[in-house]
């Protein structure tokens, strides 16, 4: 099947369309009906994954198309494999927060995360290790969908009533709340690193932490990591700690944007970082200069990411960089 550059762009989430810079003459189609299915197509040097619908034109499926629900309510097309038990699903709800991979909630019971590209997934491997080692802060992994050993989608139990840290943690900042949740988050981080047996999360920030309004129970999601990370960074636990601490600055930026007092928020950021790191390192000495230098480096990347993919987010890393400079983070 030949796909023009424009058709390829229509098959990706809108915020990722610019990743397409060429047409595609190589694709594998897994139809689930005459007008819908899953397509893996090559453009550039990547194999992109697209649940699709096809009438006069082919495009990425929307929630109203219920393509993911159809796929998981029937035996998978030939060529795909999974350990997931098929069910019966009808309602889809997309998660609107920006992320590289697109997440779809089915019947408010399971969450399906479509990969942007088909590749062997370290993230899926990490979730399997965590499950085997009894890590209690992971939404139950129900199964993965593979094509030729490459991950196309993962399926986890959906925990109703949860929000990610761009909601609940911003509320904590606005309320100047430095309570038990920070200790819980540090303990979760330490237990996660222990269970991962030398691996790390790789893209660890408050947006990857789910919480209900009824308790301080926390869950961690999205272990795909940062594709821009060096091989050394990908195994260094300090990177996860730095990334989480840097996200407290982003939380502060959001809170200030929506009317919080900047001086109160700035103090909250410093105190949140202090409690989190002291708990994670169990009160032992650690290289705080290395931590702050890494945080500053991560912010430079965050700003570049915002410039390329999410310009409306630029204010957050700009605030973080400015405040980190004020605190002399990263200076020799």
Automatic annotation (TrEMBL):
Gene3D superfamilies the UniProt entry points to: 3.90.1200.10
UniProt xrefs under InterPro entries: Kinase-like_dom_sf (IPR011009)
Name the UniProt record assigns to this protein: Unannotated protein
Organism: freshwater metagenome
């Amino acid at each position: 099947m030949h796909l023009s550059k424009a058709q390829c762009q229509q098959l990706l989430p809108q915020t990722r369309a610019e990743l397409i810079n060429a047409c595609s003459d190589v694709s594998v189609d897994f139809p689930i009906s005459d007008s819908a299915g899953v397509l893996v197509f090559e453009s550039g040097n990547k194999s992109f994954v697209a649940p699709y619908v096809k009438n006069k034109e082919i495009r990425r499926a929307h929630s109203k198309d219920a393509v993911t629900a159809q796929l998981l309510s029937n035996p998978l097309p030939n060529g795909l494999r999974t350990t997931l038990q098929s069910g019966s699903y009808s309602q889809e709800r997309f998660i609107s927060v920006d992320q590289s991979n697109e997440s779809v909630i089915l019947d408010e019971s399971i969450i399906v995360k479509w990969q942007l590209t088909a590749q062997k997934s370290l993230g899926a491997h990490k979730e399997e290790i965590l499950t085997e080692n009894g890590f209690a802060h992971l939404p139950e992994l129900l199964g993965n969908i593979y094509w030729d050993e490459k991950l196309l989608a993962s399926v986890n139990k959906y925990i109703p009533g949860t929000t990610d840290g761009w909601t609940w943690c911003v509320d904590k900042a606005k309320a100047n709340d430095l309570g038990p949740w920070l200790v819980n988050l540090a303990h979760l981080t330490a237990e996660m690193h222990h269970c991962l047996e030398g691996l790390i999360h790789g893209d660890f920030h408050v947006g990857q932490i789910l919480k209900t309004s009824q308790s301080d129970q926390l869950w961690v999601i999205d272990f795909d990591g940062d594709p821009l990370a060096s091989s050394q960074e990908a195994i260094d636990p300090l990177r996860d700690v730095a990334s989480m601490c840097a996200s407290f600055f982003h939380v502060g930026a959001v809170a200030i944007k929506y009317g919080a007092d900047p001086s109160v928020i700035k103090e909250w950021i410093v105190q949140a970082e202090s409690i989190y790191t002291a708990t994670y390192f169990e009160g032992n000495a650690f290289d705080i200069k290395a931590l702050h230098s890494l945080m500053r480096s991560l912010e430079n990347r965050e700003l570049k990411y915002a410039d390329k993919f999410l310009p409306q987010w630029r204010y957050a890393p700009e605030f973080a960089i400015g405040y980190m400079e004020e605190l002399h983070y990263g200076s020799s």
